[in-house]
Design goal:
CATH superfamily of one domain: Ubiquitin Conjugating Enzyme
Helix content: 55-70%
Shape: rod-shaped
CATH architecture of one domain: Roll
Oligomer: single chain
Structural class: alpha+beta
CATH class of one domain: Alpha Beta
Keywords: Coiled coil
Protein name: RWD domain containing 1
Strand order of the largest sheet: 1-2-3
Number of helices: 6
Distance between the termini: 171 Å
Largest sheet: 3 strands, antiparallel
């Protein structure tokens, strides 16, 4: 029994495990935990005890808020009665509910990912259905890209043409070279001097070589005529 004016406090640690949950080839244990701290007031149980969530694991902020609201409601409904066990039981059931919600949410997320993967695979194999709209859009883009390629090629050819002589230009260049050679010879022809003594020395050199040869036999001019 509790008497007015008596104050005490204690903590209860509540936990709930949802077992093993398989998702995307790895194992996950669904478990939530909370530590409740109760402090008796002077007029307990005619007055609700003070309570707080001292610590928690794997609970979202909205889960914590829901648990606090539940404690307030249960305390209000059980005023005048010993209520700690009732409050703890209510929180334990709430944790069970939270675990089930987490499990359901993750199963739905898993199914959604599998569905998206299947849709992506179908899209890969079947491609996008051709409609008038997407065909015209593709063709406009293709024509624009083709036009850019043609412009680039024409610009390159134009640039190359500026640096390259045409056939006519090559012919005129060769003809001008021939003309310049002829003109050079004509201009130099009147100024060329021939040293005849050079040729005389060459004839003497050949005659001397023949006479020095022991096998040399002068040719008979008459025999040549007879033959």
């Amino acid at each position: 029994p509790f008497f007015y004016g008596e104050e005490s406090r204690f903590e209860l640690k509540l936990s709930k495990s949802g077992g093993i949950f398989i998702s995307n080839s790895f194992l996950m244990i669904l478990a939530v935990q909370t530590t409740l701290k109760f402090t008796y007031s002077e007029k307990y149980p005619d007055e609700a005890p003070l309570y707080e969530i001292f610590s928690q694991e794997n609970l979202e902020d909205n889960d914590v808020s829901d648990i606090l609201k539940l404690l307030a409601l249960q305390a209000e409904e059980n005023l005048g009665m010993v209520m700690i066990f009732t409050l703890v039981t209510a929180v334990q059931e709430k944790l069970n509910e939270i675990v089930d919600q987490i499990k359901t949410r993750r199963e739905e997320e898993k199914k959604q990912k599998e569905k998206e993967a299947e849709e992506a695979e179908k899209q890969l194999f079947h491609g996008t259905p051709v409609t008038i709209e997407n065909f015209l859009s593709w063709k406009a883009k293709f024509d624009a890209e083709l036009l850019e390629i043609k412009k680039k090629r024409m610009k390159e050819e134009e640039q190359a043409g500026k640096n390259k002589l045409s056939g006519k230009q090559l012919f005129e260049t060769d003809h001008n070279l021939d003309t310049s050679d002829i003109q050079f010879l004509e201009d130099a022809g009147n100024n060329v001097e021939v040293d005849e003594s050079l040729f005389q020395e060459m004839d003497d050199l050949e005659l001397e070589d023949d006479e020095d040869d022991p096998d040399y036999t002068p040719a008979d001019p008459e025999s040549d005529l007879t033959d």
